[in-house]
Amino acid sequence: MSISAPFIRRPIATTLLTIAVALAGGLAYFSLPVAPLPQVEFPTIQVSAGLPGASPETMASSVATPLERQFGRIAGITEMTSTSNLGSTQIVLQFDLDRNIDAAARDVQAAINAARAQLPSNLPNNPSYRKTNPADAPILMLALTSDIVEKGRMYDLAASILQQTISQVDGVGQVVVGGGALPAVRVEINPTALHAYGLGFEDVRTFLAGANANRPKGELANAGRAWSLASSDQLFKAGEYQPLVLGYRNGGALRLSDVANVTDSVENIRAGGLTNGKPAVLVIVFREPGANIIETVDRVRALVPQLRASLPPMKPSRIPELPFSGVLSNVTLTGPLRLTDCPVRPWSRQNGLS
Question: What whole-number distance in Å separates Cα of residue 79 and Cα of residue 70?
C-alpha cells in the first residue's frame, strides 16, 4: 500500500491537516529569533589587563602567567588562550557548553582576586573580564565628534559616560571605546642634555612619580580638636610639569624643561578613528550571548537622548549611529534635546579604526 493512499481516501482530513500545519508554521515564524547566523553560544569570558609601557615579554611573564595559573584551577574550562601585546594582555576562557556563564564569571572574578598579589604592584587597574561570544561581530557603533573639543577630552567623555551607561543596557555584553586615548602629559627627554647633567632616564621617571602623587597629608590635633590636611600633589597639565626642579647643577636649578619637551597630549598617539572624514571617538557595542540583536540595538538607540543630556555643553557636537553592516540612522545633535535624522555612509574599516 502506498504511503499516500490514506490521504487520498480521506481528502477532508488531509485538507484539515494541511491547514493545521500551515497555521502552525505561520505562528512559529513570528517566534523565530533574529540572528545573521545559527545561534551557537559558547560560554566564553575575556579577561583584559594593561600595564602601560611594558613589552609583550614582560606582559606574558608578569601579568598573563599568574592569571593563567589561577584560571587553570577553574572547573569546566575547555580552552584558554592568551595574547600579550605592548602594554596589554588578553586571556580568553572558553567553558563547557553546559556551564552557566554567570557562575563561570564568579569563578573568574575569584581567580583574579587570588592572583592580584602576584601581579606587578604598579598595575594601574585590576584585570577586568567580559562575557563575550568569539563568533559575534559588533552590532552597533557610535561615533562622537566635535569641532571644538579636543580628541582626548572626547575619549574621556566616551569612556567615563557613554561606555558605562551603554554597558548597563539589557543585552549588551561588551562596550569598547576606540579611536583615541585618555588625556595625558607627554615628556620627551633629550638624552644628550640629560647625560650632560649626569642623569639617567630612571632618575627622571622616579622624580616624576614622586612629584605627581596623591597621598594623605595627615592631621593637626590638640586636646579638643583635630583638623585634616587636604591637598593634592597631582599635576594635570604640561605647564605644571615644566618648572619642576630635577636638581641643582653649577649653582643653578635644573628644571624638567631644560632636558625634556613637555606637552599636553594623549596616552596613545597612534590610535585614531574617523567618521565621514572627520576625527571621531568610536564606541563599539557587542551583544551578550543569547541576546536578540534587533531588540538590543533598539534599546541602545532609545538611550541616545539620555546620552546627549549627560554630555557637557560642547556645541556643535554629533553622535551618529554606525552599525557594523548596513546603516540604521545618523543622529545629529543640533540643540540641547533636539534630534534629527540624516543619511550617512556605511562604516568600513578604512574610515573606522586605525
Answer: 14
Report yes or no: 81 and 127 within 8 Å, Cβ to Cβ.
Answer: no
In three-state secondary structure terms, 203 is helix
pLDDT tens digits, residue range 86-136?
888 999 999 988 888 889 999 999 999 999 989 998 888 889 988 876 666
Q: Which domains does the chain have, with CATH numbers?
A: 34-135 (3.30.70.1430), 184-210+234-266 (3.30.2090.10)
Residues 255-275: tens digit of each pLDDT:
999 999 999 888 878 788 888
Beta bridge partners of 318: 145
DSSP string, 28-63: HHTTSPP-SS------EEEEEEE-TT--HHHIIIII
Cα dihedral 299→301→303→304 (10° resolution): 170
Mean pLDDT over 204-211 rounds to: 85
Amino acid at 348: S
CA angle 259, 265, 271 (to 5 degrees): 125
DSSP 353: B
Name the 3-class secondary structure at 19: helix
Nearest CA among 267, 282, 294 for reference residue 319: 282
Q: How far apart are CA 348 and CA 332, in angstroms?
A: 20
Query: DSSP state, 273?
Result: B
Cell readout for 165 is 551607561
* Long-range contacts of the stretch 98-102 (C-beta < 8 A, 24+): 99/43, 100/43, 101/43, 101/45, 101/131, 101/289
Q: Where are the alpha helices (DSSP H) in the chain?
A: 5-9, 11-29, 56-58, 65-71, 101-115, 151-157, 163-167, 191-196, 201-211, 238-241, 256-259, 293-302, 304-310
Residue 230 is placed in which grid cell?
A: 587636604
For residue 133, what are the CA distances in angstroms to 34, 77, 93, 101?
16, 15, 11, 11
- Model's pTM, two decimal places? 0.59
How many angstroms separate the CA atoms of 90 and 179, rounded?
A: 19
